[in-house]
Amino acid sequence: MTSLITLLADGKFHSGEELGNTLNISRAAIWKRLKKLENDTNLAIHSVRGKGYKLDSPLSLLDSELLDQQITQWPITVLPNISSTNTECFRLLNTGMPAPLAVTAEQQTAGKGRRGRQWVSPYGQNLYYSLLIGLKNGSHQLEGLSLTIGLAVLKTIKKMGLIQAGLKWPNDLLFDNKKLCGILLELTGDPADICHVVIGIGINVNMPQAITEINQPWTSLRQELGTLIDRNKLLVELNYSLSYYLKIHYQHGFKALKEEWQENNLWQHQIVNLLQGNQQITGKMLGVDDTGALKLLINNEIQYFNAGEVSLRLATSTHD
Question: 78 and 38 in contact (C-beta within 8 Å)?
Fold first, then answer.
């Protein structure tokens, strides 16, 4: 099945005879595999008599051999599909694989977003990536970790050409107030001692605007840059950035990165609404403290809020 997708990934027409000869199977077998491919991946495959078969648009597929050669910071597992890359990291840890380790996939069937939401994960379009790390001083090193990861992802996205992207506290990257990336941290072990954290990163890379399952404004690198993005290049750059920023975080804590984070905070000095359960708190965003806690000016008094199960919105916005 992977071989067939690879042949069609260029977005051009390929005849059934050509595909059959390449894969050494009959045209009838090609037709059956194409139908299975559509069912398994939800990719739209067009058939035109006299021309053959083609995808809606080209795909940049993950190259496991290339990634294994170029990502040297930690071992990476590349999968065609998985329920969740975060869940797979924990499974690998439970089999005895040591941290750090990473997992990426072409598709997730149960991708995780914050606050129990699903992360929409169409086949071959975006980046679904999880990195499992060990923390020896859990509670201290967890402070501001998601913000540090945000900086690493932002540096990667800027290297790809989208220099106007920025950060939204605590776990999102936006472009033109539309969601570009989300970050989800999941913990196992004792945060006061030794624990493991899975850092889940979802980046909208080549996802077409036709995707309608997302209930908030969003965009993708392809939409903003106008070209198909090489997801392998993006993933290699992401691992370099993660390694760089995590090293600073381990050695000096988030406070060493606080100023850089605030320089890229899209809502600095804006009036925002903080939602905690059924409670809404309105204030002026003053950035973050050394631990990554949100600083709000409320009735001329500065108050601090940790991430947890909260949501931050512009006061004029109706979206998360």
Answer: no
- Active-site residue, 49 included: no
pLDDT one-digit tens code per residue, 256-314: 999 999 999 999 999 999 998 888 999 999 999 999 999 999 999 999 998 877 889 99
Residue 151's nearest CA partner among 132, 165, 134 is 165
Which helix (H) or strand (E) segment holds residue 237: the answer is: helix 231-252
Structure tokens at 169: 């506290």
pLDDT tens digit sequence for 80-115: 999 999 999 999 999 999 999 999 999 988 765 554
Q: What domains sit in the chain, N to C, each tagged with a CATH number?
A: 2-55 (1.10.10.10), 64-262 (3.30.930.10), 267-314 (2.30.30.100)
Among residues 33, 112, 114, 231, which one is catalytic? 114
Residues 256, 221 contacting (CB under 8 angstroms): no
Q: Is 191 exposed, middle or buried (0-12, 13-18, 19+ CB in 10 A)?
A: middle
Q: Residue 212 — pLDDT band, cuts 50, 70, 90?
A: low
What residue type is 235 in one-letter code?
A: L
pTM value surpassing 0.70: yes
User: Which run of H or of E encompasses 320?
Assistant: none
Active site residue 114: yes
- Residue 313 is a catalytic residue: yes
Report d(CA 163, CA 89) in Å as an integer: 31
Q: How many Cα atoms sit within 13 Å of 31 on the Cβ side?
A: 7
Query: 179, 222, 231, 258: which one is catalytic?
Result: 179
User: 71 with 236: CB under 8 angstroms?
Assistant: yes
